[in-house]
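Hi W., the zinc ion complex you wanted:
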Amino acid sequence: VRVALGTGDGAILRRADDGTPRDRGLEGVVARITELAKAVIGDDHDRVAAVAMGAAGPLDPKAGVLYDPPNLVPGVVPLGPLLKTSLQLPVFLENDANVAAMGEWRFGGHGKTDNLFYITVSTGVGAGIIADGRLIQGFNATAGEIGHTVIDPNGPVCNCGAHGCVEAFCSGPSIARAARALLAEDGNSLLLDLAGGTIEAVNARTVAEAARRGDPIAVRVFHEAGDKLGIALVNVIHLLSPEIIVVGGGVSQNGELLLEPVRQRIQNTAMKLPARGVQLVTAGLRQDSGLVGALALAIDRSNSSQ
Ligand SMILES: [Zn+2]
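Structure:
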């Protein structure tokens, strides 16, 4: 759980974070979030316009409820209403990737644009769509689930049960899995040394480190992940015609190691006109895209609900 008190121009004044107490159930989680939020609000309760919150979907932003949140409890979880009561403030809930997209759009330093596509590549792969100057939610408020769009029906199985989803190729765990599979065939690798000699200890971080040092297996795995991300983003370019594509999440912190094959794929296969002038960049706010995005969302939603 990460919380911040900030202003409408995206400045964070105070922040706090702590683990999610999963063993204490919904009550414990609400208590922890409340405690952290009250700590950053301090004596400024009267000056706080609203609370905005990003959480992993699926969720209903209007009702402020989560559906079967994987990190909390099963069922319909009314997190928004519960926090509204405990904090005595308006609370707005939104998908975490959408919130991060808002942060990068308003405060990420990418210039003024009406068309920005944000994709996070981390434990999972998700996205937030800003199109023609607004956040796109869709009929069931689940737009942007790019992680589970299929780019190879014969590809590896995904967490969702389908084969060849973007997430099954590009997420941190998928990168580690691909590297472990190659290591099992040919264990003679710097990558294995970096993981202390055990294949099971290989993770996305060790793969990235080995790739930077030129290890052939690691280079190949990162190139493959970047290329698959590129295929996904060519589809995005054709579908939405974004001006700026922002890549965030832990895996994106490897910069050009991931983005170079994406650029190649876009250059080689995207249609000329929608791809012309499209910028591909990493998140300007790095790990704070979501926190700063929540500030933007709090301002927007409290203005439109008045
Ligand atoms: Zn999937």
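The mean pLDDT is 95.

W.
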